[in-house]
Write a structure and sequence with these properties.
130 residues, mainly alpha, two-stranded antiparallel ribbon, disordered N terminus
């Protein structure tokens, strides 16, 4: 069976175990497109069932490992997790700072002058709260 490049629109991919299996939609050994689609649906249902079983197994394994941890191991895992959280927060702060730098001294001075001008036009002294 040869593969044609650019013919990905008629391929259905889904994971089973650790491999990705492909089911080609189209004439499969004389099958009609409807039969091929029906067969791929059956295969996908089986794959979903397998993934659900794998998910349950992973949850059970994770629970078993968590129960076996010592308090020191748990504290170390919490510390590593907090370090990751703090690192992400720092990255977010750095991205925000880079995206919107604070106004420089000239801009702040111009804004103060503009606000003072507006306050003078409005008849306020600039110290009263609105």
């Amino acid at each position: 069976m040869s593969r044609r490049s650019g013919d990905a629109s008629n391929i259905i991919k889904f994971p089973i175990g650790r491999a990705v299996r492909e089911h080609r939609i189209g004439p499969l050994l004389g099958a009609t497109p409807e039969e091929a689609i029906e067969q791929s649906l059956v295969s996908m249902r089986r794959a979903i069932t397998t993934l659900r079983l794998q998910h349950s197994t992973q949850i059970l394994a994770s629970d078993r490992a968590r129960r076996k941890r010592t308090p020191e191991q748990q504290a170390r895992l919490v510390e590593q997790n907090m370090r990751r959280i703090y690192a992400r927060e720092e990255e977010d702060r750095a991205a925000e700072a880079a995206a919107a730098p604070p106004p420089n001294a000239g801009t702040r001075r111009a804004l103060r002058e503009l606000i003072d001008k507006w306050d003078a036009e409005a008849g306020g002294d600039g110290d009263s709260a609105a």
